Amino acid sequence: MEPTSRIIVALDFDNRRAADEVVDRLGEECRFYKVGMELLTAAGPDLIEHLIAKGKDVFLDLKLFEIPNSVAGAVRAAGALGVSMVTVHSMGGTGILAAAVAAARDFPHLRVLALTVVTSMTSSDLADIGITGSTSTEEQVLRLARLAEGAGCHGVIASPQEAGPLRAALGAGTLIVTPGVALPGEAPGEHARPGTPRAAVAAGASHVVVGRTVTRAADPAAAFRLVRASLEL
Fold first, then answer.
1. Residue 34 belongs to what domain range?
2. 212 is in an annotated binding site
3. Coil, strand or helix at 140
4. Tell me, what's the pLDDT at 12?
5. Contact 105, 166 (CB under 8 A)
6. Per-residue model confidence (pLDDT) at position 135
7. What CATH number is given to the structural domain containing 59?
8. Alpha-carbon distances of 162 from 11, 139, 168, 222, rounded to whole Å
9. Which residues are recorded as binding substrate (predicted)?
């Protein structure tokens, strides 16, 4: 996969004006954007339609975790908007994962990705929600990834630190999308299990999600080119 196609820029803003400014400044450099719950709530689906009309791919990161019928409805709505990826929370179990996959079948361009363990969580956080004993974060990620694979999901979301074990477990055809990446020397922010873009891809990630590294840079296009260059080494 060509390096630019691997990079998803996260539009983690609370207003459309800020998102539009970054998209405009990146211009033709970036092809793929992530829109999460905050920006979708603030700006509405018009933003997604605008991005797609500009020829961009959109990763709609909703982390759906509801009854299967509601999840299916949200996936169909995402497909009708034209997005390329939508996320479902694997902790919801086989029922919602399978419902999402079934709903996506009417939209050949749409890929359902299962969130495993969010990148801000550690083993102690898992213990807080009752996942105790000797279960490590990596073990929980792999367990949920296999559940998602069995339900027919097209890929998973996990931290860069699990990209290698996931690729070994899931094989070559599965999408592995890794948030929590930053260039060497940059602070990881809220991500407890970070990594660099190059390390994530080398380990097996199909895509990396880059946020502040690009969107808060003085020159977003130059920062994007640095991320891309790191994948070309």
1. 3-232
2. yes
3. helix
4. 94
5. no
6. 65
7. 3.20.20.70
8. 24, 9, 10, 28
9. 12, 34, 119, 211-212
Q: Are 56 and 24 in contact (CB under 8 A)?
A: no
How many CB atoms are located within 10 Å of the residue 222 CB?
A: 12
Q: Which residues are catalytic?
A: 63
Looking at the chain, how many residues does it have?
233
pLDDT band at 176 (very low <50, low <70, confident <90, very high): very high
76-98 per-position pLDDT tens digit = 999 999 999 999 999 999 999 99
Average pLDDT over residues 147-156: 98
Which two three-digit tokens encode residue 99? 């419902």
Number of structural domains in the chain: 1
> Does the annotation list 164 as a binding residue?
no
- According to the annotation, is 119 in a ligand binding site? yes
Q: Which two tokens stand for residue 86?
A: 């939508």
Contact 209, 10 (CB under 8 A): yes
